Amino acid sequence: MPLASYQTSVPVVVDDAKCIADKGCTVCVDVCPLDVLRISDMTNKAYMAYDECWYCMPCEADCPTGAVTVNIPYLLR
Amino acid sequence: MALDQIVDGLSEVSCDVLVIGGGTAGPMAALKAKLKNPKANVVLLEKANVKRSGAISMGMDGLNNAVIPGYATPEQYTKEITIANDGIVDQKAVYKYAQNCYKIVEELDSFGIRFLKNENGDYAVKKVHHIGSYVLPMPNGETVKKALYRQLRRARILISNRYMATRLLKSSDGRIAGAIGVNTRTAEMLVIKAKAVILCMGAAGRLGLPTSGYMFGTYENAANSGDGYSMAYHAGAALANLECYQINPLIKDYNGPACAYVAGPFGAFTANNEGSRFIECDYWSGQMMLEFYNELLSGKGPVFLQLKHLHPDTISEIESTLHKVERPTRGLFQQGRGVDYRNDSIEMHISEIGFCSGHSASGVFVDDNARTTVPGLYAAGDMASVPHNYMLGAFTNGAVAGIDAMEFADSHDFAEFDAADVARERDRVLAPTKREDGIPPNQVEYKTRRLVNDYLQPPKVTRKYELGMRRLAETRQDMQEHMIARNAHELLRALEVQSIMDCADMAVHASLYREESRWGLYHWRTDFPEKDNENWFCHTLLSKQNGRMTSEKRAVEPYVVPIADDEKDLYDKQRIRATA
Known about the structure:
By secondary structure, chain A is α+β, with helices and mostly antiparallel strands.
């Protein structure tokens, strides 16, 4: 069966200007209980790679530069 | 190499005690095991990261079941939980918890986790339950995980993050021999030989589908996909009273606690659309949930948590707790909805179903030493059968498990397992990665959980359950033959779906076996609407026997704390009666 990609607006937003993943920081990726954050190969910044969020907030709370914002997923907003 | 790329690999390590799950019970079990024998190796395996994993990822707003001298006695607590759980309780484990939990509170206090105290320096215990007072607020509850993690580092516990355990290993004589796991970012396999294993893998919280349709918008931490229930089942351990589902009254759509345990002691209450109280007590029991369900359907719904009548300072105090600890995005959610607790009530709804002894009584069967029915295998926390045990129960019973497991490890050598079991498990785990074409895990999961909602959500109708069983079997076949995982992260989800499917099957089997109604909404069978103490005043134990799912009755152990006849139905009288 062929697969199609599915559009979804993700709840976790990273401010690239504040994110220091390009300096080696991986805190948000490390702490996420659902393991949905990754560092982009293109920008070297953190981003939400999988829309599987529990909107729990460790990524935002533990980010050393305040670059991460957790929003409520649209479906339950 | 990029994360999530599949790597072929299999390594083997060994330890004395293996703890699986680093949320609440797990860290305490690992710590107590290590303190019991500092020379022994204790490994703590965690699917996420111990720093932020489990139900208390962002902390906890209070202890819901603290037996504090001067406020409550172990006897009183044991009695209350027995009545709240409709009498189906082996009291020995509950009583032991009630006796031990104060020591654990003091220990947590020494870790730097503070509890609310009054002006005299005494713990400020609040009343939420029907009979006694056991709720102790935690004003700096957001520090729990950090404090625990510090203790683990200090004790030199070996922590392995991002490994998902998939199956337990046993010897030919039935003793525990270790576990098999898979790295969630590389798909490399790991065999961990252990003399004793403690399962602390949380609730089966991703069983029903939230009505929002967002699969991860669950009440429980969505990482809690019931892996522990599934692993215990496949290892031949017995699981108790799985038909006693967890169903909770939650903030509608947000699916987190509203939370009456925090706000209730200040004067907040659950109200219907007329602003009237309809339940006597906000403590979560099946009987209370049935009244909640009835109210929603009566035309007097929606149901709200009402606190706008309180003093603004009180509301601010409640608000700061609710929006800081446990589920801090509650504040963001309410803001988005334009809900201000000063003017608006909080709309509530009924959660989807799950298994969780932390709030109800569905768990892997354990005795008062946290031992399962498999020698050398222990369980604690939300997934173990000690009823209504909440966070403090996870800590306290985790401690019991850690100490007993280390004693077991000290007196046993490694058990031998069959290498063929590892090879078989490796093939099973990696099968979705070997297919070129098929169905992705998220679709198999959505379908499974949608079937759970359509057919398994109480009231339980036999005909619906039979249909559900058939549809689940079809979906299982799709899962086993056609599910694909294109990277290690998808493989993690594919393995979780298999746990969810096992839990759905167990929910059907256990529910059909108990031919009566009990625990209010949790096990309301329309074909057997009455409580039948003559035939069903017993536990039900589900286990895998000769490869088949089997259920049997098990007598309730004689009570340690007697319950008078006129006390037995106190929790059945939840509805506020109209007075002239």
